[in-house]
Structures are given as C-alpha cells and as structure tokens.
Specification:
Blueprint lengths: L2 E5 L3 H13 L3 E5 L2 H11 L3 E5 L7 H11 L6 E5 L1 H5 L14 E4 L4 H11 L3
Amino acid sequence: MAKILMVDDDNDFLEASKMVLEQGGHSVFTVNSPAEAQEKIKAENPDLILLDIMMQSPDDGIAFAHKLKKDKVTIPIIMLSGISKVTGYSYGKCNDVLPCTDFLEKPISPKVLIDKVNSVLGK
C-alpha cells in the first residue's frame, strides 16, 4: 500500500480521486494548497504526490514542484492539469520547466488514474 498525497484546490476532484485510489489499495491524504502540502510531506512522507498545476495562482503547482526539486525532495510527482480543455494549451511532457515524473490531463478516468499511479510506483 502506497501513501499518496494529492494537492488540488478542487475538492470534488480530490474526493472522487481519493475514493478510486483507496479502492486500488492506496492510502491517500488530500490538501488544497502547496503550503498545506509542505506540512503533510513532513508529517506523512508520501510515496507519491499528485499535484495540480493551477490552484490559487496559475503556476502554484509548478512553483511548488520547483521548490521540492530545489529542496532535494525525491518523491515522484504526477502533475495534473485541465488547462488544455479550457485554453487548448498542452504542457506535454515533464522537463526542467515542468519538474515532474509524469503528467495527466484532466478529466482523468478512474482506470487511467490507477494505471498511471501504479506505473509510477513500479507496480
């Protein structure tokens, strides 16, 4: 059972995804901001972080991922975004600008979420 931290300001998305991941055998912690995430990382030492790109500010997730990288945090990060649905812009792949292990575009089906999480966790 992996410990997963989900960071997103959309409570409906958090609750639905948490239920899917818990049914998949994972322990899930949810927070609504990078500040809360920082504390939860210290308290829970998660195996994986699911991190929304746009929260209170358009780049909250990216800025937080850069902070984690700067602080030498090695927890894998799956970045989440629904930006392409709204703007047509696609982030594409993880790189130095988008420091993550993998990327998922919202909306995310339960099967895709479980498959991606298990893949990143090496299961």
